[in-house]
Amino acid sequence: MPYTIPAAPTASPTPSLLHRELQGLLDTLARTHRVPGAQLALDTGTDVIAVHTGTADTATGTPFTADTAVPLGSLTKPCTAALVMLLADDGDLDPDEPAAAHLPELSGIPDVTIRHLLSHTGGLPTGPDSDTAATTTAARYLAAVCTARDALFAPGTDFSYSNAGYVAAGRLVETVTGMPWPEAMRVLLLEPLGVVPAFVGDAVPARPVAAGHALNTATGQARPARQNLAPLEAPAGALLASALDLTAFGNALIGRADLLPPAVAKEMRRPEPAARPGALADGWGAGLALYERDDRVWCGHDGNAQGTSCHLRADPESGVVVAFTGNAGGATALWRDLTEELVRLTGIRVPAGARTVDRGRPVALPDCAGTYRNGTTTYRVAPGADGAPALSVDGDLPIPLVCYADLTCDLLDPDTGRPQPGGRFHRDPATGRVDRVQISGRTARRITDDG
């Protein structure tokens, strides 16, 4: 039945009227946010409405179409997770067995399970630097970074978003199936969904593809951006797809397509108790971000490649699926505006991100100053010019932090001065000392006490 909530309009617009309204909305928002091209697909549970706008590649002038495939970035991860869970359903592996049982290169962290990899609860570092990763193999990379020395926390006790975990998940798919990850993705997931496969690095794409774009702030012009993804990172971010493709996948994730058995889809959506993703979402399952709204739990994921922003949300209760792709960095703000307008047009409250909660007034956290590390990435928290803490990542210009009593923090946008959800600090329960910081879902372990 159609999605209804107490705040919904008394009369829903007809599909044709809603199509026109969504087309006008997408056209307007793309201009406002300087996004060359975008797609939106809405499956209400009874009707599928898809609109697109603009240009796929400003260098060629190629128009966006409904079939244009966009670099998905991290929205590749739930697809890789679905492959792993399908293999588990076939009895080829157990999500709760040690990953090292299949991947000897993970023997340095023997307690990390396959489920930990998929839910970012294994304590693994963030992931490979794309330039460095281009010169090595997945097995060598994993053996080098998946060690007790680099672990951020005990497996299954916390959350840290990790591309390395999905490099391992892709290796797992290859080991179990005997197929390269792209081939397994094509045969086991994409073609059964009716999706024409496309991957970053395809010499001759089998379908129209969009370029990502960076905005030249001096000229106001959007220029194509090169996708910088090493082959070993493919399971974490190499897929290209359209909004309609994502809608098909979203239907599988909520049991409305034959690809995933209902029990598998439900298992992917089951929240992991240790997964506290902070600013990214309200919870996490086996490959899926979870978002709480209006007593419902939506599932989905966000993805950013070089100059793209893509988003998927699906509500198992109502059957509503929403997918969006945009080919510029400004498409993330476009997506947030779009979700607000969908409430006005349809009454559907699509969660753009984690819930906003009242954390009270800002407080001082003088004991948070120090240096923190995640793999090769260094986070430094030190007093700024006004004495308040500021965060610098790998030596970049510091960004002011606003801290709260619950140990969460916001980042002050350098351009607007507005607070943006940042993350949280952790205290060691035994000592009470701040020993970790989580920024944008990535946790770093404290290595020095002074700022």
Structure characterization notes:
This protein is of the alpha+beta class and 451 residues long. Helix content is 26%, strand content 24%. It contains eleven helices and 20 strands. The strands form four sheets. The protein has an eight-stranded antiparallel β-sheet, sandwiched between helices. Helix 1 (15-32) runs antiparallel to helix 11 (331-346) and helix 5 (138-145) crosses helix 6 (163-177). The longest helix is centred in the first third of the chain and has 18 residues, at 15-32. It is globular, with a radius of gyration of 21 Å.
In short:
Helices cover 26% and strands 24% of the residues. It contains eleven helices and 20 strands. The radius of gyration is 21 Å and the shape is globular.
Spatial separation of the terminal alpha carbons: 56 Å
Q: So how many helices?
A: 11
- The radius of gyration computed from the alpha-carbon positions, rounded to a whole number of angstroms, is 21 Å
The unreliable regions are 1-11
Query: Average pLDDT across residues?
Result: 92
- Residues in helix, %: 25-40%
Work out the strand percent.
15-25%
Which strand order do you get reading across the main beta sheet?
3-2-1-12-11-10-9-8
